[in-house]
Design a protein that fits this description.
Length: 329
Amino acid sequence: MNVPLWAWAAFIVFVLAMLALDLFVLHRGAREVSLREAALWSAMWVVLALGFGGLVFLWQGGGPAEAYLAGYLIEKSLSVDNIFVFALIFSMFGIPLRYQHRVLMCGVIGALVMRAAFIASGAALLETFHMTIYLFGALLIYTAVRVLRHGGTQIHPDKNPALRLIRRVIPATDALHGHKFFIRAGGKWLATPLLAVLILIESTDVLFAIDSIPAIFAVTRDTFIVFTSNIFALLGMRALYFLLAGAAQRFVYLQTGLGIILAGVGAKLLLTDVYKIPTWASLVFILLVLAGTFGLSWRATHRSGTAAPEPGHHEAGSAPRDVVGSGIR
């Protein structure tokens, strides 16, 4: 799909405007995001994403619109897994709910930049080296097997190279100072625990991007469709976090569903030169797997009466941990 420069510029301006509105107007200062507010923002982002898909349909036709929707669903489903990992990171460091919004917002901004770089490099590789498509397919199959065999993601801050490097070169304080990442004390700059959390979130997102970007390229090679579907899913991640972070126990079949989706799109890449699976078939496959995943999860938790804890309960009476000196090493 031949996209004019003005379309790229208009979309980037829209993204920057929405980020500025969120960060500097609607959520200034440190405060908790209510469940109602998170639900409204989540619904708004879904409506905007689907509305953009409608514009693509009117502008370019059904094929690109199907590819956009499939890419958006892939990234959105994978972002649910990200959310539960982010909730675990916040819990491990004892970060109060009122400070999480700024960390997530900075994390989303960093993720937007990294995803753009990943998409550009991935598109260049596919354009230059056709065999890269088989590398992407094999990576997705490997990830799917790993997800299906091992289930949930484990976080080991002591093994995170970015965090270990920061600990060695930047002095740190053992207490939170509002929603600041750095403070100046005794004539020198000190990192707060929020910086450690941000580093973990950003580096974790890089690992997720390694899975999600090849998965979307399995649906379409159009960089504009890949970029816009990815960005819309990322923009809605913060609101979705505050809506779902406390409901991890409800999604008991999430890992299975994600593993099946990754395996399916990986197989599509490996079969590229044998049989080209139509985009509508990929879209139907993703929708069916997601519907089955959430339906079976609801049925399992409804029968067992599992109650998911509310996010942020760990903050009551909890003392912030030191980036360097806590038990998290």
